[in-house]
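Bench log, entry 3. Co-assembly request; chain sequences pasted below exactly as received.
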Amino acid sequence: MSETAHYVASRLATTVLIVLGAMLLLFALSALVPGDPATALLGPAATPEYAKRFIAEMGLDQPWYQRLFTFLGNILLGNLGTDVLSGRPVTRVIADVLPYTFILTFTAIGLAVAIGVPLGCYAATHRGSVLDHVFAFVSVAFIAIPAFVIAIFLLLIFAIWLNWLPVLGAGEESSWLDQAKRLILPTIALSVGWIGFIARLVRSSMLETMGENFIRLSRAYGLPSRLVTYKYALKNACIPTLAVLGMGVGRLLGGAVLIEIVFARPGLGRLMFDAISTRNFPVLQGAVLVVVLIFVLTNLLVDISYAAIDPRIRRQGSR
Amino acid sequence: MAAHPDAMVAIRNLRLDARTEQGPAHILRGIDLDFARGRIIGVVGESGSGKSTLVSCLLQLLPNNLDRIEGEILFEGTDLLKLPPAEMNDWRGRKIAMIFQDPMTALNPLFTVGTHLRDILRRRFPQLSRQEIRERSLAMLNKVGISDAPTRLDAYPHQLSGGMRQRIVIAMALLVEPDLLLADEPTTALDATVEAQIVELLDRLRQDFSGSIVFISHHLGLVAELCDDLCVMYGGAIVETGPVAEVLARPRHPYTRALLDCEIEDGQEGRLATIPGEVPSATWTMDACIFASRCVHAAEVCRQGPPALLPAGEGRKAACKRSFEVLP
Amino acid sequence: MTGFIAIRRTFGRIVSTLGGAVGTVIIVVVVGAAILAPLIVTHDPDALDILNRFSGPSAAHWLGTDHLGRDLYSRLVFGAQVAMLVALIAISSALVLGTLLGILAATLSTRWERVILIVFDIISSFPSLVLALAVVAVFGPSTALVTAIVAVTLVPHFGRVARAQMLTLRNAPFMEAERLLGTSATRIVLSHVLPNIAGPLVVLASIDIPVVITIEAGLSFIGLGVRPPLASWGTLIYDGYAYLSDSNIPVIVASAALAVATLGFTLFGEALRDAVDPRLDRGGH
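Structure output for the full assembly:
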């Protein structure tokens, strides 16, 4: 098992390095804010006294390396700064909306996997059939059309024309049933592209696996074709699928930002959007960092589950 | 017709055509062959001779570009070609088992040796308990010469050497206690010392094997060492069959002779001996002796229609019109 | 000359598939509209006609007008121009920069290779849209900025592929021969490396086009990309969405244009990939 430990350790080290790099990039961005930072952050309406106090509070009068040091130190301590508008800690502000984004992205991934994997398996085992061709075309369309466009169409059709579902907001104050109803359209909008993506990936990896000798061997021993397809071949086909899932979480989070805005749902995306329009830089910085963290950690998780599925990976250390 | 009256498997006039870019290809051109219980038959030929396709036919795991298959494969009187797919699948891994050519790719890299053995055992003997499955697996691993069997059961294929993997594949084949064991060049992918070990293992295992073994090889030496009968294939047709010792001592077909010469030269001089010329294309319609284009003894008569596979001595057959003339 | 024939053969293979043919038609329409925009519009895309706001499709306004009475068809056509320009500039700069970095990573010392790869990893760890948000927050929204950000986020794509291609190429016998002959590194890159790695990079570029269009439209949709009054598909959707209760025609028209364009470019990109590398069976067949 030390092989596994070594693999995890090396993936962890890369992850830490990436997060550190991302923080540096964010810091560099904040240092690049053109003009007087206080004016830029507070807007021209701020009084000179307030601006002065603000500068001292934020440590903006210190040299850049000292600020970098404080910045990194604070993040390590879990302190992402203070919301310029409300004066609340940024961590709290983010913690308030994070669950909404989490629920949205993970139900979307769940839905995509639940639909995409069986579709891909069907297409692979019925290669060349009419449905295979239909799925192939639908998949491309699903992948190609931007999630927020799908969101708008869903909203138009189901909320405005048919008036079946409530859409705007997450229903923070209402019953779980209402909250679930409000989750339906955003989830579909976000997962549609993924359904196509996963279905295609599973199909092509399954086809590749089905041609392997070990599958021939399973067939030569008369193993039931369900066992061959869903135990032997699917596990092999999972590996590339997982890799893409990991890489794609970033796109999914990006998509979630737009979806949250279309459906006026609270969440990280909405938070970032509002932070930009109010020039609330600490909140934006914190939110971006959290998104990057989620993305990087998901990838770490994917890499580790990779190793759990594929015993060969454990030996290789890094990718 | 039958070479052995007690034949367990009798293949009759088996023909297989495939679609290729060059047009319809005749992969098997009318095969007549018998396998008897308790005997090992070696099937020898160059690549493209159809020997691997013959194995695929016995398992009914046919290539995707299959165009047409006809003839009979009588397994204890049942024609496998006429079995519905579900029933045929029932024969696989029960009456027929197979050892694959490349042990490096024959095992699924994501599953342990134990899982491989367990799944096929559970399919073959559904009544076995978990404990019995484990015991049988361990016993079989010991039998195929794998030391430290309990540890190996939990090992993944990539943790084992090629020879070790082939022993696992052989163990799988024996676990299902088949009547017909197909071994498709089981040693080709292994290096020479491991090859010798595997051949020795097969030779030892045949003692308590009551069925029939088909051993595919392109190596006459191996076949001579291991097999009872020999079947020489060329371009999708059988050119000669008979007991190994007699065939090799006195070939009745120029192609067998040429193969034998290659093997001898190979061993002595250490250089690669080859038969001049090329195997005729599979799209060729057989209107002459298939070996005529490369045969040193080819005469006019050889180009006038294909020769039949005719008796050529005790238990032997050869497909050569000039057999007794040129091979005294 | 052989290059030209190869391109023609590849193109032939693309249009011989249904997806490739549909994609090609869509691309021709979109690119044609972008190039000929000033000639084919019926109105000045920015001309206001407040009295005629939200008018439905008519002979005068083929697709109707928006909340300021501007001609939707003309704005749509100019939107195509913006989308194509952003895609063209972003992808070609990412292609050049990425290829350069990729080749450097494969040829420089291991340490530099690692540095470059880590930088790629860091860039890729920002979802492109989120990185764009962070940068736009600092510098304010503008078309140029959107283009630059998209280009940066695409650099790792091209860099990784270029590096991988270069690594396999580095050990090729003809490379060894050239080195022994004392051919300069620049010459080797120009005469051997670029032609050899061009295929996969072009495929990647074409597959990235719809991605860029989507990011530009997404950013413009939330008002952080192309700024009004400049017409972009994203700003058209943004405007339409704000006045959804008055009329849903602008939203539908602009979203449909965006969806059809991304679909067309995706279909074409995939047909191109299959034509260049038939081994990857993904589409249909």
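DSSP finds ten helices and no strands in chain C. Chain C touches chain A through 48 residues (CB under 8 Å).
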